[in-house]
């Protein structure tokens, strides 16, 4: 059963988002438990990685160059477009907060689920998370009209719990457990990790259902904004790394489009304005449709290589 769910995870991610929309009360009930799911997800994903290699990647300039693109450059692009389209100050604030947001902690598991290597995605996720409060603070200075403050204590606690803790535990396990045994365990855990990801589209889409019940026209508007942001992030990541490597382009595209909006909301809360929670919900369906699209796109990109090798 686990292997079947993991094999078709791209479809089940979409189903989870739709189910959360149909059952908003169940979505709201799951929402408080998402941090616990997130911890298990990070721990299980990191167990299969050599922490020395991961730390080595974090020391490389290109990882931080990606993080700058992910947050600062895309903030400039998205907010410029929104301003030209005469977006409200509240919407500009919400968009700037989304673009400052680091990549979703579930990204490496999603990257693995579509057949790509998760190590680079993990390094990029950690780098964007570390850069997030700096860019978010600058964005709030530019777009928040009232006084604000960031809950950096909560942010540091989450860094320790969701990144530093699992990395240290994974390094300990990697050194103590025989590698053959660890490989067998992780092959099973990798199926569990992608299933844990199902809880995020299900648990985060609830606020969007609320605006849908109030006004269909407003809901369509928010959905189109979420779709446009997701598409912009994906295309930007893909195009920047296209000439470097096709797989790297796909990894960058997924990492760029996946946004840990829950962490941003935890750090800044009400300072993000009324539109942020709705955009957070509106992003779920387009975000979790991407793995299915990436599977298709990856197959298309590999077709010419297959033909050349057979020739």
TrEMBL record:
Entry keyword annotation includes Membrane: yes
Keyword Membrane attributed: yes
TM stretches of this protein: 30-49, 61-85, 91-111, 123-143, 155-177, 189-208, 220-242, 262-283
Keywords: Membrane, Transmembrane, Transmembrane helix
Classification via Gene3D superfamilies: 1.20.1530.20
Name the UniProt record assigns to this protein: Membrane protein
Organism of derivation: Photobacterium ganghwense
Upper lineage: Bacteria, Pseudomonadati, Pseudomonadota, Gammaproteobacteria, Vibrionales
């Amino acid at each position: 059963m686990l292997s079947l769910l993991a094999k078709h995870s791209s479809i089940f991610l979409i189903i989870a988002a739709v189910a959360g929309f149909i059952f908003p009360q169940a979505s709201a009930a799951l929402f408080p438990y998402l941090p616990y799911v997130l911890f298990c997800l990070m721990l299980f994903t990191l167990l299969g990685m050599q922490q020395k290699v991961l730390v080595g990647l974090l020391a490389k300039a290109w990882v931080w160059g990606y993080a700058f693109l992910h947050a600062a450059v895309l903030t400039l692009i998205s907010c410029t477009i929104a301003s030209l389209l005469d977006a409200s100050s509240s919407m500009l604030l919400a968009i700037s907060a989304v673009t400052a947001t680091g990549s979703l902690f579930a990204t490496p598991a999603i990257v693995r689920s579509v057949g790509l290597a998760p190590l680079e995605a993990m390094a990029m996720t950690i780098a964007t998370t570390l850069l997030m409060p700096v860019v978010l603070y600058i964005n709030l200075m530019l777009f928040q009209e009232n006084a604000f403050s960031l809950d950096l204590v909560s942010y540091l606690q989450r860094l320790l719990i969701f990144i530093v803790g699992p990395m240290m535990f994974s390094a300990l396990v990697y050194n103590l457990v025989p590698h053959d045994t660890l490989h067998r365990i992780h092959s099973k855990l990798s199926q569990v990790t992608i299933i844990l990801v199902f809880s995020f589209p299900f648990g985060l889409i609830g606020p969007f259902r609320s605006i849908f019940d109030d006004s269909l026209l407003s809901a369509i508007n928010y959905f189109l904004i979420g779709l446009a942001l997701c598409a912009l992030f994906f295309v930007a990541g893909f195009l920047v790394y296209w000439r470097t490597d096709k797989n790297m382009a796909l990894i960058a595209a997924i990492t760029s489009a996946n946004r840990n909006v829950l962490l941003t909301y935890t750090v800044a809360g009400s300072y993000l304005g009324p539109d942020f929670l709705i955009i957070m919900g509106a992003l779920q369906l387009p975000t979790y449709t991407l793995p299915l699209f990436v599977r298709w796109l990856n197959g298309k990109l590999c077709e010419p290589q297959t033909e050349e090798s057979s020739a």
